[in-house]
Design a protein that fits this description.
Elements lengths: L7 H17 L4 H5 L4 E7 L3 E6 L12 E4 L8 E6 H7 L6 H6 L3 E5 L1 H11 L2 H11 L10
Parallel strand pairs: 1-4
Antiparallel strand pairs: 1-2, 2-3, 4-5
Helix pairs in contact: 1-6
């Protein structure tokens, strides 16, 4: 098991809260929605997946996209496989995904250029993730560097 998540349920609880925040955010959400893609994140340690739908109309009012915790029937345009701990560190702003791809820490497929275009868009979320952890009472999971 990884360092930050004891199981998939804990990861889903944290990422669900975080995705609620950024997909409703007036600055981040609309820019993410412009990507017009479906992204599947496949995590290891714990093994699970999260799909973010930025292509179809949002399932909930006030959101700029939808997300699904666990397997779903949507066909992704791009997928990204990585350790959950890497993702945790990425959302703190401590990882370079392009370097991680070249080093084999991330495996990707599909419309890779589309997901790379999202990188500058999600940078403001690096401030949201640690705050979300604190709000959830998971301050012990905030990475301090």
């Amino acid at each position: 098991m990884g360092i930050y998540y004891k199981d998939a349920n804990q990861l889903f609880e944290i990422y669900g809260y975080f995705l609620d925040r950024i997909l409703k955010d007036e600055k981040i959400g609309p820019k993410m929605a412009k990507a017009g893609i479906i992204i599947k994140f496949i995590y290891t340690d714990p093994d699970c997946e999260i799909t973010i739908d930025l292509k179809n109309p949002p399932a909930k009012a006030g959101y700029y996209g939808s997300y699904y915790l666990g397997p779903c029937d949507l066909k992704e345009d791009v997928w990204s496989k990585q350790a959950a701990d890497f993702s945790h560190s990425f959302w703190h702003g401590f990882e370079n995904p392009v370097a991680a791809i070249t080093k084999g820490k991330i495996k990707q497929g599909g419309k890779i250029t589309a997901i790379l275009k999202l990188l500058p868009v999600v940078r403001p979320a690096f401030q949201v993730f640690p705050k979300a952890l604190e709000e959830m009472g998971c301050g012990n999971l905030v990475i301090k560097k």
